[in-house]
Model the fold of this input.
Amino acid sequence: MLPYMGMFVGTLLAVTVPTPHDFPLRVTLVIAAAATCWVAWFITLHQDWQGRRTLMACYYVGMLAFAAALVTASPWYGFFAGIGYVHAFFALQGRWRMVGVAVTGVLVATSQSGGLPFVSSSWPLWLVMVLFNLVVGGGVTWFSSVAERDDANRKRLVAELTSANERLAETVRENEGLHAQLITQAREAGVLDERQRMAREIHDTLAQGLAGIITQLEAAEQSRDRSADWLRHVDNALDLARESLTEARRSVRAVRPEPLETARLPDALAELGGRWSTRHQVPASVHTTGTPRPLHPEIEVTLLRAAQEALTNVARHADASRVGLTLSYMSDVVTLDVRDDGSGFDVGGDVEPDRDGGYGLTAMRQRVTRVGGQLAVESEPGAGTAVSASVPALPGAAA
Done:
């Protein structure tokens, strides 16, 4: 509205309070009408043109030309010429904005001086007024430009922050999906791991115990006529049943085997070898090399279970006359070797099948691999069998 208000005030004063050197009123009104149409066409009727620099520059030049003509026709049109200060902000860019403000300051100073005839006779005063307008208009323009630049920077920062927040929100949504997926996978892995653990524990407790009980009862059936042997086999079967029941309960509660609760691993292996030798009437020697030291509970359980499985296989399949267990402590690994002089079997390459459909070697290999170890089986028909379990020497709490 400012251009129209300035035009209305300037025209009203030019009509009611004319100055001696004004143009003829008819000429002045024609120029005023043309100037009004110029502003209306570019600013009011086509507001979407304000973002087009070339058109706005043409508009501003034309507006200054009309303002100069009107100020020349009547100094009262300085009210209209002053609109050049405001329109310079959206019509011009950079240094051209200051040029437009300077030209506007000259036109306003000419109007304030009373027109061109007064300027020609009192030009020093006119220069002072021009300087004043330039200082005021230039200062306002500079501060406005700084504020405009800061506002543009703030808008840019807000846009960048909005974009960053959107990306962050998208990342959070993706992370939520990944988190849910990981929880599901962890749950499934936990269920599978628990199933495998229970399968191994059932084999190491119930399956081995039942196999030993059957072996002892079969031996008792064969020695029915010898009461002493019969009673010994029955007592061994009862002992195996009690031990298997205790170990089964401990396995369900995920507690360490009883031998490791009360003794160190070398002593537990020695006790295991002694009991096995007594039950099966086969000499079993247990040797320890290196310096024994406490190991991680899972490592000790793995080695004890491997020894139990190997001895069970010897009793069921090997028909051996002697067995040897060697526990070797080295700097970074601990190995358990179980050797017998029994019938042996054909390993058949790198992967050996469990004999009689048993789960033994598979369970042993899974246990050893689970703690980062390796299991090796060497055997030939008629040449005995050697089982070697090598696991990391992870330290445990001192006893």
Remarks:
- The first strand starts at residue 284 and ends at 289.
- The chain is about 70% helix and 10% strand.
- The longest helix spans residues 123-222.
